[in-house]
Amino acid sequence: MALGGKWRIAVTSGAACFRTYGGLGFFHGGASLQEWIVPCIKIEWPGKAKPLDIIIQPISQILSQRPKIVLEVRRENLFGNEEALARQVEVRIRENRQNTIIFRSQPKMITPMQEEVPIMLELAEDVEAERNTPLTIEVRDTRTDQTIATATTVLMVTIENW
């Protein structure tokens, strides 16, 4: 151990004598700096990168057949998400009773630099729904199909397939 116990020193076996050239036998006049100090580096990462955490801004009612949902990037600290990874998401709105998709968005990439991301949804084909139908909003990761966030709302327009 070096002074203070902060550094460890590894000494080779037989460091007091080395075979020399010229037939002089074994001797050593002392250790050089290179023989005593071997640099070792220990690297520790302060955090682990993970995908962004996203929440849905509350929306109590769907009032049109082309709704807009606003997603918020959740911040872990005041300085932002330095170790967060961008994430591609899709938003789906499902009817609760039969679990059919009523509205769907195009995939959208969300980056750590964004705070709020508006997502426009389109009406799915061949669907019908009554006014006052309870709905569930789902935000899904397109790569893993994992549900990231959910919220509930109510449909306030009639959707007819004609």
Report on this structure.
The chain is mainly beta and 162 residues long. It is built from one helix and 13 strands, in the order ββαβββββββββββ. The longest helix is centred in the N-terminal third of the chain and has 4 residues, at 33-36.
Task: List its traits.
162 residues, mainly beta, Immunoglobulin-like, two-stranded antiparallel sheet, 13 strands
Summary, kept brief:
The chain has 162 residues and is an all-beta fold.
Count of distinct strands: 13
Find the CATH superfamily of the domain at 50-155: Macroglobulin (MG2) domain
CATH topology of the domain at 50-155: Immunoglobulin-like
Structural class: mainly beta
The top-level CATH class of the domain at 50-155 is: Mainly Beta
Note the gap between the termini. 84 Å
Helical content band: under 10%
Strand content: 35-45%
Instruction: Calculate the mean pLDDT score and round it.
Output: 82
Radius of gyration: 32 Å
- State the CATH architecture of the domain at 50-155: Sandwich
Name the helix and strand elements from N-terminus to C-terminus, one letter apiece: EEHEEEEEEEEEEE
- Low-pLDDT runs: none
How would you sum up the global shape? rod-shaped
Q: Quick one: biggest sheet?
A: 9 strands, mixed
**DSSP helical segment count:** 1
